Amino acid sequence: MKKALIIVDVQNDFCEGGALAVPGANEVIPYINLLMEENEYDQIVLTQDWHPADHKSFASNNNRKVGESIILNGVPQFMWPDHCVQGTFGAEFHKDLNRDKVTHIIQKGKNTEIDSYSGFQDNNHFMKTGLDDFLKYHDIQLLEIVGLALDYCVKFTCTDAVANGYVTCLHFNGTRAVNVKPDNGRDAIFDMLQKGVTILG
């Protein structure tokens, strides 16, 4: 069974000091590097939030406050601080992440009108990113997933992976939650378990 490691959004804006820093984010980088060092993966894929500056998920572009919600193209949209804007330092991968063995990069969130948490598709399920096509082209059947953040982009990447027919495993030690609400990370784990994601310690 061919396997791939999917590393979700380990970018400066989600790490310590970033515009949308995930608590403990930097702690996962050595763990992810060790996974790549100690395991043989057929493919290693990075996903990258890559937003235009006028993205509609940014509170600043809607005259809203961070933490408010709006309806965007028919689905609820949390208002985020500006983050991972195309071409900025915040959108770059963290310097400590070892990219020597990376075989592919998927950029997401490029459409101004629609957010994209999942590495597979946007939140409205209108447009796919090309990740599924890439993995199927390379006969990948098993996915191991790590990265940021557990309760958003990691969760939706994991559940979409299951929906697309992959054996899907999340490395619990390779992810951290935003926890906008204190239980979001815990709830994300329960949700993933119910949908068929295996949680590895």
UniProtKB/TrEMBL annotation:
Q: What is one process in the GO biological process aspect for this record?
A: pyridine nucleotide biosynthetic process
Keyword Cell division, does the record have it? no
Name its pathway: Cofactor biosynthesis; nicotinate biosynthesis; nicotinate from nicotinamide: step 1/1
- Boundaries of every Isochorismatase-like domain copy: 4-196
Check the record and name the Pfam families matching this protein. Isochorismatase
Q: EC no.?
A: 3.5.1.19
From the UniProt record, which GO molecular function terms apply? metal ion binding; nicotinamidase activity
Top EC class, one word: hydrolase
InterPro entries in the cross-refs: Isochorismatase-like_dom (IPR000868), Isochorismatase-like_sf (IPR036380), Isochorismatase_Nicotinamidase (IPR052347)
Keywords on this record?
Answer: Hydrolase, Metal-binding, Pyridine nucleotide biosynthesis
Family membership: Belongs to the isochorismatase family.
Q: What is this protein called?
A: Nicotinamidase
Which species does this protein come from? Answer: Chryseobacterium carnipullorum
